[in-house]
Amino acid sequence: MNYRDQNQLDKISEEFCRHLTADTDAGALNWQASLDLLVASFPGSFGVLLLKKSYGDDMALLWSGDIDPSATTSYSKHYASVNPWVDVWEGLPSGSVRISELHSPARQFRGTEFYEDWLRTLPNGEAAVGMKLYGSDDFLLHLPIHFDLKQCDAFNSALARVFARARSRLMEAIHAEKQYAQAYKHGSLDWVCRSSHTPVFVLDLHSKVYDFNASARRLIDESILSIQKGKLSINHRAANGWMATRLFDLRMGICNDSWRFLFQIKQRDLLLELVDLNFSSVSKIFEHHRYFALRIADIPFDKITDFELVAQYYHLTPAERRTLRIIASGGSVQECARQLGNTENTVRSTLKTIFDKTGTSRQGELVALCHQFSGNRI
Q1: Residue-range domain boundaries for the chain
Q2: Domain 304-378 adopts which CATH fold?
Q3: How far apart are CA 378 and CA 376, in angstroms?
Q4: Which residues are CB-contacts of 355 (< 8 A; sequence separation ≥ 6)?
Q5: Segment among 58-62, 150-154, 203-207, 306-310 with least mean pLDDT
Q6: Which DSSP helix (H) or strand (E) runs through 74?
């Protein structure tokens, strides 16, 4: 490779941008593939790609090249927070391309924890060329490629040209990914609302409402729930407290099995259920929010048993209801088959369908679910 041949360098830049859309869904960007291609074009180097929302803590840190995994782990856990180059890059405008030996050589950081305990231990870390792209209200991209000081003459100007040629196309690709991520999010949330048989609100961890269906609108009109400053509120003290506590636990990373709550309001018996939507992310930068569906169902608690309550809520068939009653009462598959006059394989098949519908996977979880439905009715 002739690193002074501008045509060859421009081809690297083209391939770097082209790999963004390689082996991925339309609209999403394959950052790892592009990083791998770029690092492979400069043998002996390693690269680290930081993708971060301009606000919040969500970020992605991708690595590629000749660097020990223990070094990437220690950097992510600690040395990123004491990296003095971060302050140097902080004040630079979007589109900046910098060569460390010309603008901010690593040797000026001698004596610092970052240099002595991390950077100097790497055989190819002290020289680097980096690029920064910044959208004032959207994202930060920072991409340095590190290499041995002996390779400066070959790599410095070459990498600077590759970055300079690629930055405008990278900005276009990032804006396209943002639009795709937003469209994917809106489409997914809309599907959740349209496919629900009961009133449903889509919330984030702070109870901000992103969508709801027509049935949910009627609950607002009836003043059972309200939306204040974009956030959902249940006009029942205990129910609203339950929702706030569940969301707080989730923000704190606390596991809690109490995802359902029964209460009475305006002579109506209602069941709340908070469901993690688990949307897969299509972007490394945008739309990393965690979304939940708050489902609300009218259930006549005083007229049906707890098994029937579960069966009605999850739309179980008559055969599934009969199986549920026996299994959730502690009966075995063999006992259920004998009582219903079915084969054990038929019972297992029916039980698998019940597990799928209720989001459980074992008999114990099914029993616990029925107990939740028979819990405090406030």
Answers
A1: 6-182, 196-298, 304-378
A2: Arc Repressor Mutant, subunit A (1.10.10)
A3: 6
A4: 361, 362, 366
A5: 306-310
A6: helix 69-77
Q: Yes or no: say if 361 and 355 are a contact pair by the CB < 8 Å rule.
A: yes
77: nearest Cα among 127, 32, 118, 134 = 118
What is the residue type of 338?
R
Closest by CA position to 124, among listed 144, 140, 110, 138: 144
Closest to 259 measured CA to CA, from 369, 377, 374 = 369
* CATH class of segment(s) 6-182: alpha beta
| Contact yes or no for 73/58 (Cβ under 8 A) | no
Q: How far is CA 304 from CA 260, 313, 357, 378, in A?
A: 18, 12, 20, 17
| pLDDT tens digit sequence for 156-172 | 999 999 999 998 888 87
Residue type, 247: L
> Tens digits of per-residue pLDDT, 211-248?
999 999 999 999 999 999 999 999 999 999 999 999 99
Indicate if the pLDDT at residue 2 is higher than 50: yes
Q: Is 3.30.410 the CATH classification of the domain at 196-298?
A: no
What is the structure's pLDDT at 98?
A: 96
Residues 297, 345: contact at Cβ < 8 Å?
no
